[in-house]
Amino acid sequence: MIRIFPLKVLFNKIKKIVLFSLQDSIKQLHTLLFLFSIVQLLIIPNTFAKQTTPFSNKTNLYSILQDNKDFLWLPGQNGLYRFDGKEVINFSNKTKGWSTPFTWIHSIAAKDNQLIITTETNGLWLFDIITGKTQPIPIEAATKTFYNAIHHNDSYFAISMGPQHLYRYDIATENTSLIAKNINNNLLLASDNGIYFNDNETLFYLDNNQNKAQIKEVTAVNERIIASTKVNNVIILASENHLFAIKANGEIIKQAISSPITALTSYNDQKSVLSVNMLGEVAKRDLSTLKLLNNNFSTVEKSRYKVLLHDSSGVLWLGNNRRFQQLTENKIKNHAVIFDTNISAIETEVYQSELYLGSYGQGIHTFSPATAKNSVPVENINQKLSLKAKKTTDLLAVDQNLFIATFDGLWRYNKANKETVKVDLSFNNVNLNHLILLKLRQNKNLLYIATDGQGFITYDLKKERVTQHITINSGLSSGEVIDILPLINGDIWLATASGIDVFNNKTNTIDNVITDTTTKFISLLQADNKIFIASKGNGIRVFNPQKQLLSHFSKEINFSYMSLIDDHIYASAKPGLYKINPTNYQISMVTNTSDYSFTDNAFIFKEVLYTANSSGVLQLPRVTAPAFHPKVYISKTTVSGNAYLLNKAINISSGNDVITLDLASLDYRTGLEKQYKYTLNGNDWYQISGNQLTLTGLASGDYHIEIMATNSLGQWSKNRAYTDINVAFPWYWTPQIRLIYGVSLVGIIFLSAWLLFLRSKSISHIHNLLQSDINNYGKTSMQVKRNLTAALTLIDEEQLSKSKLLLQQCVDDLNKQQTSPEPNTLNGNSLTEAVPFLAQYLQNKYQVKLFFQLELNEKELNYELQADLYRVIFEAINSAILNGNGRSFKVVLQKFKNKIWLNISDDGQSFINFNNKVNFDISMYYIRKIASKHQGSINTFNEQGNASQLVLSLPVRN
């Protein structure tokens, strides 16, 4: 029975427990507790330095493949797995959301953005790595069990099992042909020219470029093939005793091997080949000659590794029938140095062309990385040191002397005369010789000594005496000074147990720059005319000499010691050694240093970079390799619970939808947890917690998202991930609706402007009419006045005949102006009386006929309304007579549906002009004012027979 293990991403945590034995006096208890806490943080390996593959304990995984996007794919009995360095997705017919028609997979092969999959019971399939969709390959075979399949020249070649045949499926013709029957095969590879496969110990070559495929035997290879691979169109084969390389031109290279090679793979630059043998030895060979090349892969445990892959990030994946493991080239070397002490804390210093090591209880040793016994005690020093003085806290070489800071004061060693003496630190009758010293720094002829609990001491190297002792009584934030940095301008920067102080030598004043009892400030360094302050658990702060904070970065890293080498800062920390550019603060971890706990500054010895750690002295490459820029992807997108691979344009109906983007930086090396940040529409960058970005509550509109990520060393990759999100607008605010809104608004504005224009024209027309009437009446009155004045003069002169003529002319002028009064008002009469009179008046004056029909009780109407109705009748008919050609008029006044209806009709088109909003006369103006006064309406109509009609409707009011 096959047991299927669930797949989980596991990162094993390796911890060493260091037991401390406190043997010092009660007086030193505070110091020991502090030092123990620091050293414990240093020597316990960080929890993720030994990051292992998530498949380390999984069986039944048959191979591994990296696709063209750099994702890793692994097939097995439990389906297909995709790994992005953080998360694993399992595709099988048992996985919800990532279902496939198959489970048990034997092999996978790459074909553009697809995988060719062979299954145990379901035949051949194509799997799209972008969408996760599957498509069957309709090959006709005697079985549904396939163990291997590849693509070559528009055909699929597949090896079945039970029976074990080699088939070819032509994609264009959809025909299946049987190439070889009943073969004992474990090899199927394609070069540019053809297919290689084997049958037992015989290797065959299928030339697929000819019109008719021909199978040829490769006689030069007559051994059972154990492992095979293709590297840059060169076929590499391994038997039990030999390694073969078959080039594209047919040349075959044969190389004897000492141990059977069990797995082969190409180096990720496609210029060489990697192999692993039964002894666990990883070898790198030249592709053209198969000669061994130098490599930095360590030997793994002995096993028959069947799977080997060197991925784009430089990680070598090895798999056997028990597990998968990762291996990276180790270009660093640790020279083991173990002292018989409770705490493994090593101090280092280069003195007189030799490297000296200070231990935490075993005194001073010299170190030579080239010798077998690399650590030798210096007896001339150790024999003179007291028991407590053998606990070394710092070493400093000054000219011909080596100064040793210990738990029992300061000691000096001179190599020339082999003399070791204790330095007298007495000052002002105070004995400072037995203090616990923590750090030594030199500036010109002065030696600055940091102490535990007693501030710092200034020692004159020429006068060989203490010149200054600054304690907590002088204003220090704490008497425990962990590091000290003297500057040229006279400032002395101090890292104390309670913060950062600056003591000025010239003014003897102390400035408490930082006061923080929750953070331990461990190391001070001047670089690029700036002061760098490393702390435990709170990153690195950068100040200028004027004590102004310039930057605070890497707050999550637990730093310890710093040194300036080749214009870069090397800062040791948990979880590794970091390289920092002091100009722009770019930081990256040095490869493969995450397994070490550092105890002192990095340094140069004989042009080689070293740094001490809890298990020895680590040798590092002085020139770091170029930064690896991994591909950055949105590996999975989830929109309101629906997940799909990678990313595409996301369209959601509202901001209430939840979008989750799983991010991946495809660097598979062990190291730091990768960091991610994103920007929306090119605005500010925001840090992402973890590898998931969740977005919701987005306002309607389009969003372009750009994502950055770091590699495993903390360096930002130049590659970025992108996606676009479209949040739909509500129906009442879509772009189309907004366009309609805009057009409507513009129309309303134009209509309003047009109506205002018409109103202004009509008002102007009324003013002109009124002005004309006023002018006419004015002229007549002036003429009458003049004539009357002249007539009076003539009467005075007794010229009666002439005066009579002038008076008659006045009468004639007035008669012309108004020969008779117009019946334009009721003058106290009722409608039934006034309308007949108006009809007679119109008959006499204009020879027109007026018929009238009053169908309501005029007593129901108040006098004002009757007067207004009569005025409408008078003005309408007068205007129609003067401006039209009507000769017969009819007036109907009635009450209907709670309204008073006045209908005036003629036998011409007289009332049509009443619709004009600009060109109208005073009569039209009066009628409209009356209609507006009573909240009525006026309408005009054409009638049959070239007639017109004016209708006034007024609401009845109580």
- How far apart are the first and last residues' alpha carbons, in Å? 102 Å
Alpha carbon gyration radius: 52 Å
For CATH, the homologous superfamily of the domain at 825-958 is named as: Histidine kinase-like ATPase, C-terminal domain
Strand order of the largest sheet: 58-64-63-60-61
Number of helices: 7
Mean pLDDT: 86
Note the overall shape.
elongated
Number of strands: 69
The profile of the biggest β sheet is: 5 strands, mixed
The fold-level CATH name of the domain at 825-958 is Heat Shock Protein 90
CATH architecture of the domain at 825-958: 2-Layer Sandwich
Helical coverage, percent range: 10-25%
CATH class of the domain at 825-958: Alpha Beta
Instruction: Please state roughly what percent of the residues sit in beta strands, choosing from under 5%, 5-15%, 15-25%, 25-35%, 35-45% or over 45%.
Output: 35-45%
Uncertain segments = 1-51
